[in-house]
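Record format v2
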Amino acid sequence: MNTLAKITLTETKLALRTPGFVIGGLVLPTAITAVLGAIPAIRADSETPTGMRFLDAWVPSMVVLTIAMMGLQAIPGIIASYREQGILRRFATTPVHPAQLLVAQLIINVTVTIGGVGILLVTAGVVFDVPTPRHPVGFLLTFVLGTTAIFGLGLIAASVAKTSRAAGGIALIAYLPIMFLGGVYLPRPLLPEAIRDIGAYIPPGVKALEDAWTGAGAQPLQLAVLAAFAVGSCVVAAKLFRWE
Amino acid sequence: MPLIEVTNLRKTYGEHVAVDDVSFHVEQGEIFGILGTNGAGKTTTVECLQGLRTPDSGTMAVLGLDPGKDHTALRQRLGSQLQESRLPDKIKVHEALDLYASFYANPADTGDLLAKLGLTGQRDKYFGKLSGGQKQRVSIALALVGRPEVAVLDELTTGLDPHARRDTWKLVEAVRDTGVTVLLVTHFMDEAERLCDRLAIFDAGRVVATGTPGELRDRAGKSTLDEAFVTLTGRD
């Protein structure tokens, strides 16, 4: 087994022993959707201009929740705590670069994100007849760019924070508005139009997800902005990151 | 040729001069002590040798390698136990050993290593559940798992009770007896006196004296290393 695989396997075991974020990422978005879906009024056909049911409009917000939870809460916490405890520094004295530990953590948390969104899509589709994305390529592209941008922001928080507690606090600066604009706190159809428009361009691109899902497809400008966020946040994180 | 050779090492952090004109050498097979109070520049010096920091000036050779340039080759042959470095609480002892063993070209048998360090019974325990002494022994095991030629042990017994300290000292001697050269960083006079073949006394970023514990006592005209340290650092 190569070193990265060995590290990833060990880190996966550790993640499963304190499984808060793994369970949260895999189950919470689907569970919230299921609870809402159990309310007849929410899954009933609505008279909104788009003809979308409330539940159909809700699912993209749960994709936002999944990405934000893993990228802005799980990742900053674990990386900052590994630095705080000297684990990254300890790695630096071995023949293996501590970047491998970072990569292992990214693999685990991105996998949970993908798994959580997958479970959400399948459950929403099978149980509540939420249609699958009409433009799968645009959806996938938005998901990849949005996830990269959010994880980049999470790594920035992990870079500037001295402790894991501080990393969580700093990440919250991005987490709260992203969750709000993403319609997790208040469903997007109920948000004022101006705020909905802002949400179109803030990662992970909830409007692009919606458009790819039920509309005319993700707009090039939205994707370009997301790509810029993705590249920008990763470059800044790489510049700011300290191993100790 | 000495195993470790440090010449005129200097390292500053902004205005603060952490290490200033430090020179010493370590011979193969000895326990060499770096003794000094907190902030004397001990850890910075060792971090330069480990390739974790780049000195401002001066030269270093460890096993004939330059820690700055050849750190990949050096890290296969240099084992480290770091001050204030932990493992995740939920990692099991044998998992940590197996993981770190996989980093090295020619690792030790982890079962043997655990037995030598008296950790066989803790093999399946979580790191977070171990006593302070057991955690330190795991930390030593990780420093030795790559079969290093040099082991750097930094503040090994800080926070341990007297029994655990003495057990740890015996371990360090056992490590040296297997042919590993030990670089021991400590602020405990009794530890340095008991363990070190030779040592360098650090004060305010400089080496104020080098020699065997006996030579240092004689030079200061004192009967204990503790008193000699106070005299040699000019604080009496």
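The mean pLDDT of chain A is 92.
Residues 201 and 225 of chain A are 6 Å apart (CA to CA).
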